[in-house]
Amino acid sequence: MATKLSSEQKRQKLARAAMNVIWRDGYHAATIQAVATEAGLPAGGVFYRFPKKHDLALAALETMEGEFVPLLESISTSRSVADRLAKFFDYLDAMTPRRVSHGCPLARLMLDMPNDADFASSRRTGQAVFEALINWVADQLEEGGVDHRTATRTGRQIILRWQGAIILAHSMGDRAILDDEINELRALAKDLLG
């Protein structure tokens, strides 16, 4: 006998499904029915919990934020800056196959969202995820002895280059593009730490 999901579990399942559907199909092509099918729940539950499509976008972004932020916190328990950055790049490596096949879910949603007031909260949530990634890398570099300005600039550069490599690897269907860039970013961080 299947266990009955709580209201919060259903919401989380629908939010994850929204993230997956939007990642796969894009925001504009995503439908309530596709989200319901992905979640294995009735479409009425989607309408009940997310009355507007922008509510689905926000839920998808919050799901992404809920994955990245704890990941960065768990990596931060490593003893040395070099270990933390190595684990971070290992994580980027682990995501590579899905990024090559589908692109970056966060970037895709941020690019697809309409630029109107209904999406202001969603846009801030997505920006906060990118800012958390940039700031985490910069903080590690600064803790490792890199001056604040260089650490900040390099944190932004690492996330920028990773995102650019995702776009190119996805567009070309060539994993080596992303693998090579992540390896170069590892080397850049290692060189800065001396």
UniProtKB/TrEMBL annotation:
PROSITE patterns named in the record: HTH_TETR_2 (PS50977)
InterPro entries to which the protein is assigned, alphabetical: Homeodomain-like_sf (IPR009057), HTH_TetR (IPR001647), Tet_transcr_reg_TetR-rel_C_sf (IPR036271), YxaF_TetR_C (IPR054156)
Superkingdom of this protein's organism: Bacteria
Any matching Pfam family: TetR_C_13_2
Domain HTH tetR-type as annotated: residue spans: 8-68
DNA-binding region as annotated in the record: 31-50
Record key words, sorted: DNA-binding, Transcription, Transcription regulation
Gene3D superfamilies named among the record's database cross-references: Tetracycline Repressor, domain 2 (1.10.357.10)
PANTHER family, alphabetized: HTH-TYPE TRANSCRIPTIONAL REGULATOR YJDC, TRANSCRIPTIONAL REGULATORY PROTEIN
Protein name as it appears in the record: TetR/AcrR family transcriptional regulator
